[in-house]
Specification:
The protein is an alpha/beta fold and 184 residues long. It has 4 helices and 11 strands; from the N terminus they run βαβαβαββββββββα. Helix content is 24%, strand content 22%. The strands form 3 sheets. The protein has a 7-stranded mixed β-sheet with strand order 2-3-1-4-11-6-7, with helices on both faces. Strands 5-10 form a two-stranded antiparallel ribbon.
């Protein structure tokens, strides 16, 4: 049996959940909506069981630490999924936060609030910022993932109204599509 392709999103609040659900439909994927939460409520193993039942591909999974210092629930779940032999993680949407838990990540690219694909870093609002470090509270386990497609993005469903649900979450959709494009 072929492994399900997984895209992880490092946010799980209600706005992100709705935006990711819409964006997943836009790319023909399926969201594990139960993986949403601020913080993530399910364990990595519980999420893997839900992935097995998903009927579409790719499967989008949300993981969130809610700002927890250290390795929180979202990072623990993400690490289990990343290390599982039963799925193929093809990429991560690295959601930016407001200047906490900043680190140098090997971003493949970022998507600005205007939908531009850039080589730099974006902030929570989807603005191109002139710095090398990405800030986000559920990104620590990605530091050493050099072969993974990691796309930086602002707050899904928000970004100064450019990604709002009524518009079809176009920025989140573009970020998911960019991961698919870089894996084809």
């Amino acid at each position: 049996m072929e492994k399900k392709r997984i895209i992880l999103v490092t946010d799980g609040d209600m706005a992100a959940k709705k935006a990711v659900e819409i964006a997943a439909i836009n790319i023909g994927g399926r969201t594990i909506s139960a993986s949403a939460g601020n913080p993530t409520l399910l364990t990595g193993d519980e999420i893997l069981e839900l992935i097995k039942k998903a009927e579409h591909d790719p499967v989008i999974v949300m993981v969130d630490d809610r700002g927890y210092k250290g390795t929180g629930a979202g990072e623990q779940a993400m690490e289990i999924i990343l290390n599982s032999d039963s799925v193929e993680v093809i990429g991560v949407l690295a959601v930016a936060s407001n200047g906490k838990d900043c680190m140098k990540l090997n971003l493949s690219c970022s998507i600005t609030k205007d939908g531009d694909v850039i080589e730099g870093v974006v902030d929570k609002y989807g603005n191109n910022v002139n710095k090398e470090e990405t800030c986000g509270d559920t990104l620590g386990v990605l530091r050493d993932k050099k072969d993974l497609v990691i796309v930086g993005i602002g707050d899904p469903g928000k970004m100064d109204y450019n990604d709002e649900l009524l518009k079809g979450s176009p920025i989140t959709t573009k970020a998911l599509q960019e991961i698919l494009n870089r894996n084809s």
